[in-house]
C-alpha cells in the first residue's frame, strides 16, 4: 500500500474540491432539506492565519461537516473584517494605500483557508472594506439617524495622543491605549453615538431566549455589561441653588446615613456650584482628573482624592446640612453624576470619609463592628437604626417605605439605572466607513441621500494618513467641500469614519444574499436562513461585538426587515492556543506558526491535534500535544482504509460480529459526542475503531471480511469531520465516490449496540476452575446458578459446598 504523504493528498484533493464544489449552499426554494447556518467570527486580515484561527475554524468545521453528512442544506460562509487601524498604520509606514496591505493579506488568508480544507461556500465571500459592502453601513446609518438612534453630542471622551483618535472605554487598559500603550487623555469632542441605551431593557430581557444555549459565563458577562440596577432617584437641595439636584442610589434605605455629598468633578454641576473661595483648588483638581480613564477612577485600590466645593446640600428627609465635595470616584455620565455618600455602608464612601475626616453614621445594624473604627463598610442586610420612620425595618421593607415617603413629598421616586452607555461611533481615522452626513450652516446635519451612496473614501495614502488630531479625511478638501443636498448651499462632509464594530454587526445577514443591490440584504433570503444556528468565536467578543450585533438585529426587527430578535441561537467560545503555559508572544519567543506546523505535519494532523487536545472551551497548550502522534494515527487509519480486500457494496451482515459491534457502538457514541460538542472524545472513539479494525485485519477474520469494510467506510465518514484529506483519500481507495463530504452519516443498528459480555471467573477452593461469558447485568442468583451448573465446577465438588460467595458479574468463589 501507498505511504501517507500529506502534501500530495492536499494538492490532489484541493484540486478535486474546486471541481466538485461540495460545500455550496443551495438557494433553491424547492430544496426540501432542512437548513442550517453555521458562522465563524470572520477574520481580520492582519497577516497569514495564526494558530488561533487554526483552532476556531477547525472546531466550527467539525459542526459544519457533521451537518453536511446529516443531509442538511448548510450555509457556511467566509468573509473578511477588513477595515481597521493596523492597515492604516502599515500604509503610513510604507507610504502606501491601506487597501494594498489589506487585500494582499486577504489573498494570503484565502489561500491558507483553502489549504486548511475548511468547508466554506466561497461564492458568498465578502470584505467589509469593499464599497459595495460599506455602502450598506451608510444606508443603515441613515435609517438609524431617521429613527433618532444616531445622534451627535459633545462630551469628554478617551483620546489616544499617539494614534490621534478617540477610544471606546473598553479600549483603555490601565489608563493606556490598548493598541499602542500611550497614556490616554480625556478630550472634549462632539461625536456620533448610536443610542443602544434605548434597547437596554430588551437586550437584557431577550437573554431569556439564550438561556441554556449560550454559556453561563457569556450570559453573565452580557448581563454585567448592561448592568441594570434598581433603586431610587432622590432630590437634594443645594444651598443657594434653586433647582434641586437628583442623585441615583441603590440604597434609599440608607438615606439617614448620608453624611456628605459628592459631585463628579467633570460634571457641569460642580463647576456651577463651587464657592468662589474654592474655585482655584477645584479647577486644579479637575485638570488632574481629566488625565484619568474611568477604569482608573473606579479602581478600588486607588487612594481617594477630592476637594470641598464650599457649599452644602440639604437631606430631603431630615433637613440635615451635609458638605458637598468633588471626587473622581463619582463619574459624570453615570446615574446623575452626583451621589449621596453613606460611608457606613459603602466602601468607596468610607475610604473617602476616613481620608478627609468626615463623619460615619451607622443606619443599618448588621451585627458587624463599627465601620468608622474598622474601616470596613457593612453593605449587607440588617435592621434600620437612627432612621426615624424606618427604624426597626429590614432593608427591603425600608426601601419600600422610604420610596413611599419620597413619593408623597415629591422628593423622589423608584428608578432603574443601566451601566450601559451609548455606543460612541466616530473615529478620526481613514480606513473605515465615512459617516454619510453633510454639515450645512443652514440645514444642520443632512444625511447623504440613499441614491448617492456609497460615500466612497477619498484616495489618500502614506503621509496623508498620518495622525494629525483630526481625521485624515479632513485633508481631502475636494472631497470634503460639497453642496448641501437640501438647500444646495456650500457644505462640508463629516470627516469621521465609523467604528469597525458597525461592519461586524450585520455581516452575517449579508452572507444570505451577497451582492444584493436593493438593500443590505434580501429580506426573504434572511427569513429562510436566519437566525444563525451556531456561532463560533472567541470569548473576547463576549460583550462588544455580540451586544452590538444583538442591538442591530433588534433595530432591523423593528424596521420590519427581520422576523427574529436574536441573531445567534448558540454560541461556542473556543479556548486559546497557548505555548508552554503562556499566551504566544514575540517577547516570550514562544510563538508557533500555523503554516510551519502544517508544513511539518500536514493539515489533517494539525486539525486533528486541535480537536483532540481537549474540550473546545479549554485552552490548548501546544507544548502538551503531539501533532507527530496525530500524523502517525492518520497514517494508521489510511492504511486500514487502503487494505480492505472486499468489494464495495458487499453485505455487511455476514461480517465478523465482534468488529461490527465496535463499529456500531462507535457510530452511536460519536453521534452523541458531536451533538454535545465533546469533539475530543469523539476523536478518541475514532482511534479505538481504527485499532479494532487493525486487529481484525491482522489477527482476526482478515481484510476480506465484510465487517472490515464496514469499519473502514465508517471510519472514513467519521474522520471527514476532523481530517478531510485522509478521509477523502481513504474513501476513494474504498471505492466510494464522489466526495466523502456527501457520503451520509452512518446509522447505528440498535441490535448491535447491546453491551458485550463480561468474563466471570469461577474459583473452587481458591483455584480458578472455569471462566463464564455472562451479561454485565446478570444478578447474583443467576450467576450462582450458572456457576453451579458448570461441569468443570461440578467435577471439583463432592457434595453441597459450605459457602458460595458471588460478586456479579466478575467472580464466583466456592468453598467446598
Ligand atoms: C448611596 C449608597 C449607599 C449607595 C450604600 C450604595 C451603597 P450600581 O449598582 O452600579 O448602579 N453611584 C451612583 N451614581 C454614581 C456615579 N455617577 N459614580 C459613582 N458612583 C455612583 O451603583 C449604584 C450606586 O453607586 C449608588 O447607590 C451610588 O451609591 C453609587 F450603602 O447611593 B449608592
Ligand atoms: Zn443646507
UniProtKB/TrEMBL annotation:
<feature type="domain" description="Aminoacyl-tRNA synthetase class Ia">
    <location>
        <begin position="420"/>
        <end position="622"/>
    </location>
</feature>
<dbReference type="InterPro" id="IPR025709">
    <property type="entry name" value="Leu_tRNA-synth_edit"/>
</dbReference>
<dbReference type="GO" id="GO:0002161">
    <property type="term" value="F:aminoacyl-tRNA deacylase activity"/>
</dbReference>
<feature type="short sequence motif" description="'HIGH' region">
    <location>
        <begin position="43"/>
        <end position="53"/>
    </location>
</feature>
<dbReference type="GO" id="GO:0005524">
    <property type="term" value="F:ATP binding"/>
</dbReference>
<dbReference type="InterPro" id="IPR001412">
    <property type="entry name" value="aa-tRNA-synth_I_CS"/>
</dbReference>
<dbReference type="InterPro" id="IPR014729">
    <property type="entry name" value="Rossmann-like_a/b/a_fold"/>
</dbReference>
<keyword id="KW-0436">Ligase</keyword>
<dbReference type="InterPro" id="IPR013155">
    <property type="entry name" value="M/V/L/I-tRNA-synth_anticd-bd"/>
</dbReference>
<keyword id="KW-0067">ATP-binding</keyword>
<dbReference type="GO" id="GO:0005829">
    <property type="term" value="C:cytosol"/>
</dbReference>
<feature type="domain" description="Leucyl-tRNA synthetase editing">
    <location>
        <begin position="223"/>
        <end position="404"/>
    </location>
</feature>
<keyword id="KW-0648">Protein biosynthesis</keyword>
<feature type="binding site">
    <location>
        <position position="586"/>
    </location>
    <ligand>
        <name>ATP</name>
    </ligand>
</feature>
<dbReference type="Pfam" id="PF00133">
    <property type="entry name" value="tRNA-synt_1"/>
</dbReference>
<dbReference type="GO" id="GO:0006429">
    <property type="term" value="P:leucyl-tRNA aminoacylation"/>
</dbReference>
<dbReference type="GO" id="GO:0004823">
    <property type="term" value="F:leucine-tRNA ligase activity"/>
</dbReference>
<feature type="domain" description="Aminoacyl-tRNA synthetase class Ia">
    <location>
        <begin position="12"/>
        <end position="209"/>
    </location>
</feature>
<protein>
    <recommendedName>
        <fullName>Leucine--tRNA ligase</fullName>
        <ecNumber>6.1.1.4</ecNumber>
    </recommendedName>
</protein>
<dbReference type="Pfam" id="PF13603">
    <property type="entry name" value="tRNA-synt_1_2"/>
</dbReference>
<feature type="short sequence motif" description="'KMSKS' region">
    <location>
        <begin position="583"/>
        <end position="587"/>
    </location>
</feature>
<dbReference type="InterPro" id="IPR002302">
    <property type="entry name" value="Leu-tRNA-ligase"/>
</dbReference>
<comment type="similarity">
    <text>Belongs to the class-I aminoacyl-tRNA synthetase family.</text>
</comment>
<keyword id="KW-0030">Aminoacyl-tRNA synthetase</keyword>
<dbReference type="Pfam" id="PF08264">
    <property type="entry name" value="Anticodon_1"/>
</dbReference>
<keyword id="KW-0547">Nucleotide-binding</keyword>
<keyword id="KW-0963">Cytoplasm</keyword>
<dbReference type="InterPro" id="IPR002300">
    <property type="entry name" value="aa-tRNA-synth_Ia"/>
</dbReference>
<dbReference type="InterPro" id="IPR009080">
    <property type="entry name" value="tRNAsynth_Ia_anticodon-bd"/>
</dbReference>
<feature type="domain" description="Methionyl/Valyl/Leucyl/Isoleucyl-tRNA synthetase anticodon-binding">
    <location>
        <begin position="657"/>
        <end position="779"/>
    </location>
</feature>
<dbReference type="InterPro" id="IPR009008">
    <property type="entry name" value="Val/Leu/Ile-tRNA-synth_edit"/>
</dbReference>
